[in-house]
Amino acid sequence: MADYTLYCFAQSGNAYKPALYLALAGADWTPRFVDFFNGEVRTPAYLAINEMGEVPVLEHGAVRLSQSGVILDYLVEQLGQFGWRDDTERREILRWILFDNHKFTSYIATYRFLLNFAPRPAAPEVLEFMKGRVRAAIKVLAGHLNGRDFVVGDRLTIADLSLAGYVYYGAEFGVDWAKDYPPIHAWAERIKALPGWQHPYDLMPGHPLPGR
Amino acid sequence: MADYTLYCFAQSGNAYKPALYLALAGADWTPRFVDFFNGEVRTPAYLAINEMGEVPVLEHGAVRLSQSGVILDYLVEQLGQFGWRDDTERREILRWILFDNHKFTSYIATYRFLLNFAPRPAAPEVLEFMKGRVRAAIKVLAGHLNGRDFVVGDRLTIADLSLAGYVYYGAEFGVDWAKDYPPIHAWAERIKALPGWQHPYDLMPGHPLPGR
User: Fold this and answer.
1) How far is CA A138 from the centre of its chain?
2) Residue B211: pLDDT above 80?
3) Which of A43, A69, A73, B110 is 20 to 30 A (C-alpha) from A93?
């Protein structure tokens, strides 16, 4: 049995955040496929595992955790990589993880879901509204990465791994990083070049969706 | 000069989170009014203070922090109240702060803004979409608080203060907690009964908006 079990599926950028950590750290882990698109996260059995009805969930011995930001914090403690040097840096990392959760991932994941996976087509007004929110959040990250190699300090941290969750799905929400946001493109390529990197569709099970 | 300066305005539930901490802890603090509705957060001067273009910002001596979750973490360190007993509890608190940022506050704040403060009326499709997201997030918290006095453990923590950010504005987004979500109502009343509690419109400057 592997050290770590990660509840995930290929289309989830939130699950990709810890999956990428585990891959880059060379950890001993196994994915546990969650059948999101057939409603598994709304079943009583799944809600008993995570009352928030979300992936990812990490199991490590008797420890079970949810929320990607919590799992990343735990992996820093366990595996000692991609963390902070002091408390000031820890807070700067947390600041970007919170921004990611509140605006960057939150808007991008919703917008991408509506464009690609929603059971019914979304109203154009909703897509337009979400697109505006997405662009504003991306602009903040692009401005921050202008002249920087990584989000915090001069090396990869869990702030990068959190913000990178949905970046490699860019075409699915109409963004061409190289053309539209060169600083984000350069940063994403920098992470992609690290030993162990894999695209979310290769790293986690469930791609492509049946019938697509 | 007060120990703490909090950049805030009365309509911001995100600013209310640390403002309420400071009030309940009896700290020596002063608000610094941010003229959000006239665009101050988009000015170069403000973006130099917080590149994310948001409130709250906390200043404490030479320390300047943004993101309510980071500020709450810092206040626990400085003032020693409403924190965790061990690392497991610290992560459980962080889990709820992340859920708050990703879904609870994120959807509620956007929906309330569209209903009350947006310069142009939002399309009904957008309001309907956001309302669905808001209700789903509220349902998770109501389920969790059913049978619990506080979000984590048996006492007030910064998880409660984060999730309570927008709760007292309920009528502005069409929610009657007492009628619709009794566990959230009971919890909000429990916090309201604490010495030092004030409504966000009383605790922070800028209410009512001019002309309303």
Assistant:
1) 15
2) no
3) B110
Q: What is the pLDDT of residue A211?
A: 75
Chain B residues at the A interface, defined by Cβ less than 8 Å, are: 51-53, 65-70, 73-74, 77, 87, 91, 94-95, 97-99, 101-103, 105-106, 110, 122-123, 125-126, 129, 133, 140, 143-144
DSSP-derived pairing of the beta strands A57-60 and A4-8? antiparallel
What region does A94 belong to: left with phi over 0, alpha with psi -120 to 50, or beta? alpha
pLDDT higher than 80, residue B73: yes
Q: Taking a C-beta distance cutoff of 8 angstroms, is the pair A165, A14 a contact?
A: yes
Query: In chain B, how many domains are there?
Result: 2
Q: Determine if residue B48 is left, alpha or beta; phi over 0 gives left, psi from -120 to 50 gives alpha, anything else beta.
A: alpha
- Same domain, yes or no: B108 and B170: yes
Q: What is the pLDDT of residues A122-141, one digit of tens each?
A: 999 999 999 999 999 999 99
Same domain as B188, residue B154: yes
Q: For B15-21, what is the mean pLDDT?
A: 99
Q: For the segment A134-180, what is each residue's pLDDT rounded down to a tens digit?
A: 999 999 999 999 999 999 999 999 999 999 999 999 999 999 999 99
A98 and B70 Cβ atoms separated by less than 8 Å: yes
- Segments forming the whole domain that contains residue A10: 4-82+197-203
Q: Which helix H or strand E contains A133, and what residues bound it?
A: helix A124-145
Q: Does residue B158 sit in the same domain as residue B70?
A: no
Q: For residue A9, which phi and psi values (nearest 5 degrees)?
A: -155, 155
ipTM associated with this complex: 0.97
Among B67, B86, B138, B146, the strongest candidate for a mutation testing the A interface, having the largest count of A CBs within 10 A, is: B67
Residues A180 and A113 in one domain: yes
Which CATH number is B15's domain given? 3.40.30.10
CA–CA min distance B177, chain A (Å): 20
Q: What is the reported pTM?
A: 0.98
